[in-house]
Amino acid sequence: MTIPTSTYRIQFRNGMTFDRAVELVPYIKRMGISHLYASPVFTAAPGSTHGYDVADANAFEPELGGREGFERLSTALKQAGLGLILDIVPNHMAASLENRWWRSIVEWGSDSRFGHFFDVDWTRRLTLPFLGDDFDAVLSSGDLSLIFDREAGTLAFAYFESHYPLNPGTYRAALDGIDLPLADQIRQLASRASPEAEDDFHASMRSLASDESADRLDAALKEISGNRQRLAALHDAQSWRLMSWRDAPKDLSYRRFFEITGLGGLRVEDEEVFEASHALILELVLSGKVDGLRIDHVDGLADPRAYLTRLREAVGPDCYLIVEKILAHGEKLPGDWPISGTTGYEFIASLSDVLMHPQALERFSAQYSDLLDAPLDVDAEARDAKAMMADVNFAGEVARLVGIAKVIGEQQNDRSAPNDEALRSAIRALLIAFPVYRTYGNRMGLEPADRQRLTDVMDAVRKGPNPPEETALMSIGRILAADVEQSADGLASEFRMRFQQLTGPLMAKSVEDTLFFRVNLLIALNEVGSEPHPRLFGLDVFHADMQARLSEQPAGLSGSSTHDTKRGEDARARLYALGEAPDLWRASFDAWRQMNRDAVVSLNDGPAPEPAVEWLIYQSLVGVWPQEIDVEDAEALKALEERFLGYLEKALREAKLRTNWSDQNAGYEKAVMGYASHLLGPGGAAFRRDFVKRMQPVFDAGALNSLTQTLIKLTAPGIPDIYQGSEGLDLSLVDPDNRRMPAFDKLTSGVEVSADRASVQGIADGRLKQQLIASILPLRQQHADLFLHGDYIPMQATGEKAEHIVAFGRHHDGRKLMVVAPRLMLDALRDGSRMPSPNVWQATGIDLPAQFSGSTYKDVLTGQTVESADLQLSKLFAQYPFAVLLSQ
User: Fold this and answer.
1) Rounded distance, CA 71 to CA 19, Å?
2) Is residue 18 within 8 Å of 43, Cβ to Cβ?
3) CA geometry: angle at 791 spanning 786 and 793, to 5°?
4) Residue ranges of E strands in 525-680
5) Element at 461 (helix H, strand E)
6) Rounded to whole angstroms, how far apart are CA atoms 709 and 704?
7) Spatial distance between the Cα atoms of 738 and 564, rounded to a whole number of angstroms
């Protein structure tokens, strides 16, 4: 199998095209990267900024350069000896009219050739939740009209720029009373139309668009559009139903991706759908132009195991496969999945065990509770967020599960079957209590491990607050475990699949996209892959995680920034450092609140911003504050303000407390944005000077943390993944901020500029980090087996500063590597020094395991020879505040 030694993730779109990527190939090769790792490159919905809303899975996005552009990139990569990994999206596609598969089911309903491609409940009309108000209101306002869509070759309902095609079977009713030759021709075409020949039908309709009477037909259709009753009747005759976007959470006839109604669930478990949606993907893999695939949101699939097995059979044994999958702490990937591992969110969580002070969460939690004047119960907050999601955002999905469970009960003639409300309560309680993204049951039921997990969750529900009726809980448990009569097997399988496809989105939206913006005591930990529950941090946990990683997924990706992380890796590194100083933080926070108290606005529902949001604002500023900015630089501050306000708007709406995406509180949002603008505007100069003065040690300790987490990523078990631009200083915020085009000109020139220990600026601005990457990644190519298969050996520091060191070794076939790096360094910088002196490490050394002693090593960064008997850190850290030693 092709296993990368490292990957470089590029986000296509937003200025990044195939040809722009070609220009970066020499730089990527110079950095020591083995594989370019590309975001989705297939045709997406118009205006897409990310490509996950695929409209045509078998064509390259024209704006990226189309097929020709891709071929140029493929050739450039091959000539440079680099591989290519593609991000693919099997779970969903754009529910837009630009997607011809989706457009076909809108036009023909369940009779469409693609009616089974999407996860649609065809016992109902296809819901199209894209109106700004309910249908009757939009109809009354005159915003709907009947048109001849000449470009598409259909009669259609027009709602501003969207044209929803009528079913040809309703054309006669639409044209009733229009006495034109063109109308007769259209009637005749429609009478012969069929979904099997829809392309011919549309072509014939388009050929009529130039008819001289087309304008007269438009006028006639416009006149009909004034008859609201007739328009409503025509709408009722369609296989689709227009509705308000606000009603989607409770009334949707198709499975969507998370809460995004513009992304329709694809039934890729169907063999025909798999083949149709993977034709180009398989061509690229089998032709050797693509070496690996990243499967987006694998938990959204009906049966991930079956899908991955089919994909492995199709691409062959050599293709590198990884999945986007969030693992709870201690959760393992199913061992029979034919993949190399995950995209590495759990690796980010492991890094916090190195860089977070063991008592940080406890100390900041106490301060946060004091601020709120109430004890903080994160578990209760998580339950509340999940309950809101189940009751509001995913109410339609829950209702569908209730309906299936009710039918199963009726089929089994169970007179004691629970009623709808009892079933809903039981389903809701299980969803809220579920501790992982999902189980992986199939048509046969649950495997033993998942059955045990279900038993544990049901026990937790019984012991929790307000448990549901036992009969209802047991009924749902039997359905999930396939303990039903044979006649109900089909429905039970559907229930199981839909329940499993719901637990993941509900977890993600309630924790990552709600709780992580509500509870902000230490936002470094509010990260994808992390968990909100209180715990202690420590090296023992980290080392255990790395040993498990080597055993379970040595070829999984190790990420530290992605397009989905809540903040860039260096912003997180700073905030880890802040976790070492609860007293500094609280004193600073109180001072800043006092300095800016006049910018707080009193509203009827409370101050804006409230204290908890002020806490979030100031912590976020610590993470994002640009290294090179001057507190008086109006232009730079304005650029920062634009980015920061976008982040803050998203944070407020995701929290769903005083405002949200569907019901914005404009007055509240304006007041909070005004507060943030004040901090970065002319009136905030005194604050900014105080802010930088107080936080400079945190910035510097964060720079050291950045080097340590980079070293770990480059050398610990797993394949290092470098997200575009994060090889330099990555102080980005949540998307879309983290999807901006990096300053590649600066990065490509900076890789050749050395940064030594004497250059504090070089460490602080990311140049030394970039140099580290460019020095160590080539080693991974030279010694691939050492990094892929080498034993992971924790090492113990000894002496006065032992707790401030993380050290480990890799050992394989006689080759040895040792990594020694600093941690928890804020106190060493509180005296005003920008970087720790080597004297800090006097009387601190490394207790070498036997297999690493008696050897001579070369320091990868300095080139100096080091004897294993002389690992005193004051010497080892003489030039750089870390060491990477490779045996000679």
Assistant:
1) 10
2) no
3) 120
4) 557-558, 601-603, 606-608
5) helix 448-463
6) 9
7) 8
Helix (H/G/I), strand (E/B), else coil: 466: coil
**Cβ density class 375-408: b for 16+ within 10 Å, e for less:** ebebeebbbbbbeebbeebbbbbbbbbbebbbeb
pLDDT digits (tens, 9 = 90+) for 339-355: 999 999 999 999 999 99
Distance CA 382, CA 377 (A): 9
Which stretches within 44-134 are classed as H helix?
66-80, 100-108
CB-facing half-sphere around the CA of 271: CA atoms within 13 A: 2
d(CA 253, CA 240): 10
Across the chain, how many H-helices and E-strands are there?
34, 27
Element (H, E) at 822: strand 815-822
Task: Give tens-digit pLDDT for 735-752.
Answer: 999 999 999 999 998 787
The owner of tokens 């979904």 is 195
Reading phi first (left if > 0) and then psi (alpha if -120 to 50, else beta), residue 420 is in alpha
Which one-letter DSSP state was computed for residue 567?
B
**pTM beyond 0.90:** yes
Residue 833, pLDDT above cutoff 90:
no
Instruction: Give the distance from CA 600 to its chain's centroid.
Output: 33
Strands (E), 133-206: 144-149, 154-159, 162-165
DSSP-based three-state secondary structure for 280: helix
Count of residues in the chain: 888
The Cα–Cα gap between 39 and 51 comes to 7
**181: how many CB neighbours lie within 10 A of its CB?**
12
What burial class does residue 232 get, using C-beta atoms within 10 Å of its C-beta: 0-12 exposed, 13-18 middle, 19+ buried?
middle
Place of tokens 């409370």: 606
Q: In this structure, are strands 54-60 and 42-44 parallel, antiparallel, or unpaired? A: antiparallel
| Residue closest to 504 by CA, chosen among 299, 785, 726 | 299
On average, the pLDDT of the chain sits at: 95
